[in-house]
Fold each of these.
Amino acid sequence: ALEEGRLYDDGDAAIPLYLALLDRDADNEDAKAGLENARQRLLELGSQALDGAGEDAAALRDARRVAAVARGVWPDDEEVESYLQQVDLAEQLWQLNSEAEEQMAAGNYGDNYGEAGNGGAMAVLREVLALSPGQPRAMQNVAAVESALIRNAETAADEDDFDTAGVWLDRAGTIRPEASTVPDALTATYYGQRAS
């Protein structure tokens, strides 16, 4: 079962078989070695699942399943404990990113703009990035917030409301000050609309 990669799905998988052998004979060296190999392979599978867990719900589910098995069989193992902490972080990042996406869908972008009376998407995304700098899903969401603010500026400029357009562009400029997105939008939208 171990060679086939069947580690825990049923009673004929490697981990339950090795545990049953050790239950009968706690000194069975082959079973001990096999169980250790299964533990290592399980943590490798978990690590692979965690690699995709930021953007893929199925990968996060796989990481959770591995965590449940590892916690049940090796509750005091340091490598297992480290893996469990990584799964906890992945779950927290998933929840925070989902919350930010809900805020964005509701049009609540800023962390200090007062939309909907709370912190908004950027406050949540800043929390994600503090926990995991450069986390891809959060970075995509940050860019989406910036784009939404720029779209608001474009809409205001289309309506000849340049003061509001400027406010939206100023807000967008606080999102990623190092990026050229907002200065480009300022040139293309704000000044372009004023000139027409």
Amino acid sequence: ARAEYIVRMDTDDIAIPDRIEKIYNFIIRHPDYDAVGSRVVEFSEGEQYGILSKMGQKNSRSIMRGDIIIHPSAIIRKSSIEKVSMYKNYKRAEDLVLWFEMLLAGSKLYVIDDILLQYRVSPGDYKKRKIQYRIDEIRARILYYPQLGANANDYLYILKSIASGIIPAVIVRKYRHSFVLAHINSHKSDVKKGSI
């Protein structure tokens, strides 16, 4: 990329029309942030499951505990990615490692309140969350947690990743829909505001 900013999005996700304008304007008005994301609606085949991500600055503790910028929602300063030597080779955990590396380099990360992306997660994607696909994620967590000042409670999230890889996908999906995603019904005005 030649531009000063890199805007992420996966090819199967759906952005609202002014998504780039909103995140670009935010990062321009807040030069202290190196990466900015938005909240997203997780969906599949016409069904919306819930809202993912929470507004606010993300620090090492929040990211270790799963409160993270959803990678396809992000705009990132190119110079900040270059400072950490781009993406590292951690299969299915490249974005997590990028956020860890950026935090260690002194970058600031933020999620705005707007819901600007529909983030596609098909039922088949949960099969990719089995333990054999989580090895690099677990390895990254074990490597980076000490560097980020993890406490005993933070390490429980590594056990959560391991458990999520062992438990049948249908149970993980039900848990996620019930306890991880914010319910759309309680955020109707936010979903409407974000034009999703």
